[in-house]
Write a structure and sequence with these properties.
By secondary structure, the chain is of the alpha/beta class. Helix content is 37%, strand content 14%. It has 2 domains: 16-136 and 290-306, Rossmann fold (3-Layer(aba) Sandwich); 139-289, Aspartate/ornithine carbamoyltransferase (Rossmann fold, 3-Layer(aba) Sandwich), CATH 3.40.50.1370. α2 crosses α12 and α5 crosses α12 (286-306).
Length: 311
């Protein structure tokens, strides 16, 4: 198929065929990464700029590795050593770097809509690596990839997303992606961490605060951490109480299906939202998600830089 989008700013609005195309392309790059020499010359001569205005380990490293595995020139951007510290605006920074003939920009920013703001004003393609509490599309894609690889198909499956829904950009991308591919999405968490308007925005979403009941019969469980850095005030009495009510323990896991898949986008707060023996247990695909991140981001970079790829 022919890819019709210049940028990847979110998963909302992408069709089943488009999501499947990305995942199928990622499968091919996943095979490349298994080779003794995991490099292809697909983007030789292209320059990718990674701009991370927020701390990141998995996303920034996997984008850097993905670009290098495709033989692109990857340029890293450090907010702490840039002219941003002197008052330079985001747009001026990007335009300055684009004038050096950058082909693509990967950006993470604390402001929702920052990626779209940049995409509307520069010629290079833009990939949203997380904008505030809005979306994190490549994380959503690697979650889809990891779940599909374990379960074969997502059609008719049920996924429960648990934790700080209000402040999670991972939730938004996952909810859109999984539902588009035919899965039923449910969310669970303290009422103070679930937006009141969520039911209106996602009419088919099942919302509950009862974790134990919500686990019953689920195919996939995705645990989210409490994002204290985005909370303006305490929204839960104590970490101890949160752990008691919403930590995924080995005992709780028995309430889900016997072949349930456990996911976590990271970073994990072990012992708070997930028990260590569950995070490292046979149901967990946490490390597989990290590995999938490189293949998925290779696929996205290749599709946007090349525009077309045969099935």
């Amino acid at each position: 198929m022919t890819w019709k989008h210049k940028n990847l700013l979110g998963l909302e609005g992408l069709a089943v065929e488009e999501l499947t195309f990305i995942l199928d392309t990622a499968e091919r790059f996943h095979e490349v990464l298994e080779r003794p020499i995991p490099f292809v010359p697909a983007l030789r001569g292209k320059t990718i700029l990674n701009m991370f205005y927020e701390p990141s380990t998995r996303t920034s490293m996997s984008f850097a590795m993905a670009g290098k595995r495709l033989s692109a020139d990857v340029v890293g951007f450090s907010k702490s050593t840039s002219a941003v510290q002197k008052g330079e605006t985001l747009l001026d920074t990007v335009r300055t770097i684009e004038s050096m003939r950058v082909d693509g920009v990967v950006i993470r920013h604390s402001c929702p809509g920052a990626a779209r703001f940049i995409a509307d004003r520069i010629e290079a393609f833009v990939i949203n690596a997380g904008d505030g509490a809005h979306e994190h599309p490549t994380q959503g894609l690697l979650d889809l990839f990891s779940a599909r690889k374990r379960l074969g198909s997502l059609e008719g499956k049920s996924i429960l997303i648990v934790g700080d829904i209000t402040h999670s950009r991972v939730f938004r991308s996952a909810a859109v992606g999984f539902s588009t591919l035919g899965a039923k999405v449910s969310v669970c968490g303290p009422p103070t961490l679930i937006p009141k308007e969520l039911g209106k925005a996602y009419p088919d979403l099942e919302i509950t605060a009862d974790f134990d009941r919500a686990l019953e019969g689920k195919d996939i469980i995705m645990m989210l951490r409490m994002q204290l850095e985005r909370q303006r005030r305490g929204l839960f009495p104590s970490i101890r109480e949160y752990r008691k009510l919403y930590c995924l323990t080995a005992e709780r896991l028995k309430k889900a299906k016997s072949d349930v898949v456990v996911m976590h986008p990271g970073p994990m707060n072990r012992g708070i939202e997930i028990e260590p023996r569950v995070a490292d247990g046979p149901h967990s695909v946490v490390l597989a998600q990290v590995r999938a991140g490189v293949a998925v981001r290779m696929a996205i970079l290749y599709i946007l830089a090349g525009g077309e790829l045969e099935r």
